## 1
Amino acid sequence: MLRKLSYIASVIAIYMITIGTIGGLLYSSQLHGEPTISASQDQSKYQPVTLSVHTVSGNPTRIVIPDRTIDLPIDGGAYDQRTKKWTVSPLHANFAITSAAPNNRSGTTFVYGHGIDQVFGKIGDSPPSVGSSAVVYTDNGHVFHYELALVQNLKPSDTWIIKNTAGGRPRLIVQTCTGIFSEWRTMFVYQFKEVV
Amino acid sequence: MKKLIRLISAAIISVAFMGGVANAATCDGFITVTGPSSNNQVSCNDINDLVVNCTNNTVTATVNTQNGASGNGDVSFNNLGGNVQTGTVLNDNGNQVTVGAACGEGIVASTGGGGGGGGGGAPAAPEESGVGEALPDTANSIVAPVAIAGTAIGAASIVLSRLAVAVFRRHDS
């Protein structure tokens, strides 16, 4: 009896090792793949935006993506040079404090969060359509409206996207992880539309 | 490189508009036969169409100036002394510039700079440093942990089963 149990346990163990090895190989192959655009750009969606002379800005406190019923508080987040990791709140969105605060003038506001249903998993699993909206609330009472321009997958090492976020048109980038092994850093790039 | 292309594009567009100004030239005409009831007209109809399809943050400055001057009436053989009246100059200076961002800028690293003068100033510029060597790890994969756990459990099962067999054999003997 014990011998039989031992045999069954061995078979199960071999299966698990095999599955684990295959999974590991798949993971490594995914990491070396080329990034793909998961939602193509719709050129017709690009409309000229009139930038206000009067600059409005504020620290982000809340983000809403109506299409996926996402409504999250925003915490500050940063890269810890000591641990070599970013601050990632378990159930909140994070605003990269090194990026530009939401404003109507210039720069990239970078918000990220876990790819779980409670955070940004809903947009990771089912990206909103181009042109859909995102809303960011700030601590000084402003409401910034953005419009989704494109969705693109990047590799974890593609940090160029959050370097020098001061220039360019005002925009919001929401990042979450996607892929079987969360191997992609999916960027949802929103263009600034208006501030109330 | 993109910046350079933009600068060149802006220069080309500016030159094109200057061309538009130059082409809005006056038209000359000569009145050769005059007399009672004669009607001489000098007309000038100059239409400049310029369609600009630009991409990404194109800055266009439109300067379109037109000056119209009626020509001089040159009267010859004016035996009957008729009146000479120079024509009316009508300048229709319509200018339509359509700037469409035909190509999305995609995800490009911001090139910084700019800021521009006036208008209340831009928000505080974040530093380039402090972004680390990798993007935030917002993973939600249960596959990788399961694979690791499966491998560990499998290895442990083999060891334990061998131990159990060894114990059973010793006990049996």
## 2
Amino acid sequence: MFFIIALLGVSGYFAGLRKSLIIREKNTLHSTPIYHGVLLAVNSSLASILTLVVWLIIEKNIFYELKFFREYLYFLTFIVFSFTATLTYNKIKHEFKARDNLEKIIKLFLLSCSSLAILVTIGIFLSVIFESQKFFNTIPIIDFLFGTHWSPQMPIREDQVGSSGAFGAVPLFTGTFLIAFIAMCIAGPIGLMSAIYLSEYATKNVRNFIKPLTEILAGIPTVVYGFFAVIVVAPFIRNTGEQLGISIASESALAAGLVMGIMIIPFVSSISDDVINAVPRNLKDGSLGIGATKSETIIKVIIPAALPGIIGGLLLAVSRAIGETMIVVMAAGMSANLTANPFEAVTTVTVQIVILLVGDQEFDSPKTLAAFALGLVLFFITLILNYIALHIVRKYREQYE
Amino acid sequence: MNNLKSRQAKEKRFQLYGIFSILIALSLLIILFVSIVSQGYTAFKETRIQLPINFNEEILDPNNTKDWNIVKKANFNKLVKNAVDEIIPGVEGRGNKRKLYKLISSSAEYKLRDLVEENIEIIGTKEKIWVLADDDVDMLIKGHIKRDLPESERRIDNQELQWIAILESKKIIKKFFNKTLFTKGDSAESEQSGILGALIGSLFALTITLVLSFPIGIATAVYLEEFAPKNNKFIDFVEVNINNLAAIPSIIFGLLGLAIFLNFFGMPRSAPLVGGLVLSLMTLPTIIISSRAALKSVPPSIKEGALGLGASNVQAVFQHVVPVALPGMFTGTIIGMAQALGESAPLLIIGMVAFIVDIPQTMTDPATALPIQIYLWADTPERGFVERTSAAIMVLLVFLVFMNSLAVYLRKKYEKDIN
């Protein structure tokens, strides 16, 4: 069908081109002949594609019976095409502003592409909200947000009696924040200190050499980090624990958090780098001028001045850590565990979303809906964190402009 | 007040902290690479055993029909067993025999079948053919199973060791380049599994992503940077949305794909088509943001020159500004595609995580992607899969390094052109 429309469009292009070429022989034209041809082709094919799409949407959602009149659809599209084509064709005269018309269409197309971002956000919002709504109809929102027991029924036991499952998400939140906290304990100091060193102490050559290297860490896929956590970090931590006489679970929060920290280091350091470089030079020069050492200047002048920006950056990093999936799916635990002990296995929101949705199951069971409710919470937490962080960073930038 | 000496000592210590943290970051990077390479480099070789196969007429084609449709039902496994009996004769007892035959990968009979299908005239001849060894044998030959461990801790017992020693002394067990890894899909047996299926799945998904997100991303960037009215509430809202999408966790995009594409539009589960759609929504913000930066860095004189000569705004933008910014846009797109290639969380949610042996032929066939294959293999405890996981990671990293260096090269070239 689209092929036929394309063919018709091409013929329309040549028709418009010919007419305008003939006009040009006697009279002056406002736009070059090509514009007339293209306008004719675009106008009429757009009209017929629109007809097609509208027909299909109506058929699918409103009048299913339309399906039996499919053969008229082709006929209708053809009529619409020839109608708009003749209309545009008759418009082609020496003063007709074909280019302006075409440019309007182009701009409209660009605008609709830009609006896609809004559509996607709305789509995310609606899909998560709708499914969560259904979930909260069966499980009260209070139980979900403040319950401390999480055991959604597992697919193997689905036909078992009495396994309705408990959906208290508190252990998931604590697990998520525990792992994110461990990650920030690693990434915060290391990222910040390396940013300070690279921007204040390192020579230009060292900086140009080291910076891309640390940025490699940001480009490694998270599934690779997950594998690294399982195969190297977790056994290492467990063995060290054994030697010290501490029992550490092989899926400990510590291992997942550590590796997630490694992943976030470049993120923290590149944001801190930007922020530190945005501190006005005269603040630094003033401090150095009255005899402070470099480190005193950094600790007492630059960092306090850059603090809002640094905090904003750290918040962005936290939102990254909370939303990160693959590392925790591979390295963190599967069952919910309400604890603050980093040596024990905890589970996170993202892990549970994956567990609930991977595998075959009907779509309307509370289990799958619970995943959307978790997604909703995740969406809001990251949204709020991002909003606060970006707000702080922007305020901070304005302060020094 | 501190005296000068302790202040300077503090200064030194502070610098050391900085160097120390950089060293930690770099050494972690090195540990990561070394551990993956050391786990996985052996996977690029596979162990094969040479068998003297007798394409026996009585087993394959007793009625001498030479018709493939009849021959294909024959017991090809018998050929393998006979050949194994021939090299290691005198093994008695069912249990022992089974153990002996297990040295050879179960793919051997399929290989013979393919050979006969290719050339039916081979029936009745005798040929020496290299077939895959079982994964445990493979691990032993590569040294991942230590021969000096006590028997109870080894997956290969003493008798099997003896047989392998016989094979070694006859020089009919050897390591070859691992063709299986690059020509096969997933398999339950590690020695028969490969990444081709996952690679094709990734390729399909990325094609969709590129086809959708590149034009839309660039159109959005051009509009926002060149045509959008300033101080317009709607445009501000669009910009806020784009920045937000860039920061939303990738798994949420998976939920979107599940709810909208799979449930609402009824698209097939596990299909690269849906994966590509989801990934393109995810990479759009990256492409838009970097394309806008590229457009911003085009000197205004270029546009003004075109406008001054009488070009319309649209003509000036599309014929003069966009061509100059295009390399910068390519850079952003490549970086976005590299991200999409490494992304796995949303693909898990839309069901691209499944045990799929067949290599996908179309965009709607069930498929996995390379990172998902890594995830699936990483979940399998067998040593043979650990090795293959690392190898798959190396292949993935090679692609990423290639894409990122291409992006860096383009950016360098572009910056030179503009200045």
## 3
Amino acid sequence: MTTAPMELFAGTPRNARDHRVEWLVRTLLGMMTALLIVPVVIVLALLVVRGGSAISWEFLTTPPVDGMTAGGILPALVGTVWLVAVALVASVPVGVAAAVYLSEYAPDNWLTRSINLAIINLAGVPSIVHALFGVGAFVLFFRFGTSILAASLTLAVMTLPVVIVSTRESLQAVPRAFREACWNMGATRWQTIRRIVLPNAVSGILTGIILEVSRTSGETAPIMFTGAAFFLPFLPQGVLDQTMAMSLHLFVIATQVPDAPDALPFGVALVLISMVLAMNALSIGFRIYVRGRKKW
Amino acid sequence: MAESTAAPRPAAIATRGLNLWYGDFQALFDVNLDVRQGIITSLIGPSGCGKSTLLRSCNRINERLGYVRTTGSIEILGQDIYAPEVELVQVRKQVGMVFQRPNPLPLSIRDNISFGHRLHARGQRVSRARREELVEDALRKVLLWDSVKDRLDDPAIELSLEEQQKLCIARLLPVKPAVLLMDEPCSALDPKGTEAVEELIWELRGEFTILIVTHNMAQARRASEETVFMLIGKVIEHGLTEDVFLNPQHRQTADYIEGRYG
């Protein structure tokens, strides 16, 4: 056997140029990614540095005092929990049911396609428009007044499309082969959905819902005309009460209370973002847990 | 095999003037086919010739695609399954199907087998012992019992492909179908698995009417009693397997079998 001449394997100028292009592309793409992360890091760092001093046990467990320049945020914290919980109770059953219908029952025709299109468009409606809809529909027409109920229903309408889309995606991630296997044993569609499709999609559905919670808790516009109050020294007692909310509270003390101490708005923002991040972390952790258990 | 022709058996599947369209595309043309009861019939032909479409029409699973239109009739055991008074769930109970890729449900081995039975025995009290018996019978029949009896609660997806495919056949049995449709049941398996599943199918003949789509000439030849050759949506030839392979009546059949196209 003779040895192949070295020229066969030696680099050419062409190779060198390719390497340079490769390096350039990789660096550019990497920088774009860094650009993406930098704002998040800066926001978090800023909040911790400037608002960290405002956080204390008292801050979380007492109402604001002295024209909201001191005291805590308890009514806003509790109010946000109320708003999100009631919104979930309203949007999840409707959204999941609609998604199951669209994914498992609806025939593929122009009507279904236009419904899907409408859902996507609904997701793009600005939140202030939802707010006006909420005032007209829930506050005035249904006479709920400005209340948690009206605000939560407005939030529910706004989040519905996202719940539907994420649920439908989880349902469609369940392999078609499972459904065919069931039908072939004489299972009806509902039996197939209940025994096979839903149990395998539930993790994805829950993940979507948790992400929804985190989004909903930060919304301001839809609640400011429908149920969130500027200042209330007491906690809401029922769904027909008005309430304070974290997002609106932040807006108010940042813009309407000039003599609030510097750390206060940052502290409120820090609590709000911690709630959102905790929810996201929960959702990610849940997804990892389920993926580890997945059998297909 | 020749004896089976001596006393002609009644048809388990009989299609009359069957046409089928996917939207504007016609996939089946005037198919008149009698699949005789209790034997294994293989369905061969080049890709896209309508074999799978025909198979999937026999338990009406094609219907899930909204744009499928069918004319003509398919009789299973003498009943037109497209008749308006026919209950789809009952058709599916009578006509089981095995797919190309094994598709065990994401459940335990035991639950895969008892799934169909549970569906249909709802409202009745079925004792645990009876259910265990059904599972054991089904698994024994597909020659799987000895290898899985100690791990019935393991997920079915952890079985080998060959075992999964056997499981997919086994889970049809508690529902007591008369006809088994198989769409290239061995194409995802290695040669050893193919042999084992083929052997199993051969064991099941007599008890079930089996219609099996295959791309594998050798498989059609050794594991079926009659063979149907299809080409572009039409049935070209149907006869005893040995006749079709040794003495085809049509040029196209001969060409296909000899591997000139397909």
